[in-house]
Amino acid sequence: MRIVRLESLTTEDLRDYLNLTDVSLRRVSEPAGGLYIAESTKVISRAIAAGHRPRSVLALGGSVADAVQATAGFDIPIFSGPPELLEELTGYLLHRGLIAAMHRPALQEPADLLRRAHRIVILEDVVDPTNVGAIFRSVAAIGADAVLVTPRCSDPYYRRSIRVSMGTVLQVPWTRVGDWPSTMELLAASGFHIAALALSDDSVDLKAFAATAPDRVALVLGTEGAGLTAEALAAADTIVRIPMAHGIDSLNVAATAAVAMYALS
């Protein structure tokens, strides 16, 4: 690896950090597949442990040793400089000392993820990266085998999502699925019972469902505010509700994921 001391922001290799948004990083044509940003030694180490490849690291002076240790074995530049210069480059302060531009791995085929799975979570159009990250952290801790996300769901590799998840989006296998007809067919072929979390007249209490839950269950969580679409509810084998007190009718989607996963664990 090469440690590059920055005196200015004119180095061509810094383009990955030059105020690029998550969407811009995802769409860069080189490298193929795009990039994502990993923050902190812990997250970078988890990414590498998951088989992801760093392209470069940006570190504050005191974090260079951590960057060297975290990326040992990779022939990449480690850029270092004063906080004010790096903040000018990235548009935000490096609170955790270092960030890395990481190559995006190719997404796995959904059927491959389901082959050995028993408890999975499906995120339908969850748009807030903070919620996506919090869901991954919860279901990773409780033991989800995989997460499937719909086309309009926020990208789990967004910087905020990775940060909130404490890097667990790099540990729990996940991929994207298509429309509900194809997803239903996929889940049925893999032997999954679809349990949608929603309020409805024919919903089943979570405790009652968990007591006799099938071996393979796919928990479906809907977008903030509107909840699950009609297509998702129609696809469900069972609609499940979490009983609540004090007239409260819903939980945050990340809290719902944690409660439901724990009940089925």
What do these coordinates show?
This protein has helices at residues 22-27, 41-49, 64-70, 83-90, 110-114, 129-142, 159-164, 180-189, 206-211, 230-235, 253-263, and strands at residues 2-5, 35-39, 54-60, 77-81, 98-103, 119-123, 146-149, 174-176, 193-197, 204-205, 217-221, 238-241. By secondary structure, the chain is an alpha/beta fold. The chain folds into two domains: 2-103, 60s Ribosomal Protein L30, Chain: A; 110-263, 3-Layer(aba) Sandwich (Alpha/beta knot). The longest helix is centred in the middle third of the chain and has 14 residues, at 129-142. The termini are far apart.
Largest sheet, spatial ordering of strands: 8-7-6-11-9-12-10
Could you give the distance between the termini? 44 Å
User: Radius of gyration from the CA trace?
Assistant: 20 Å
Count of individual beta strands: 12
Number of helices: 11
- Strand fraction band? 15-25%
Structural class category: alpha/beta
Structure in a nutshell:
The chain is α/β, with parallel strands linked by helices. It is 33% helix and 21% strand.
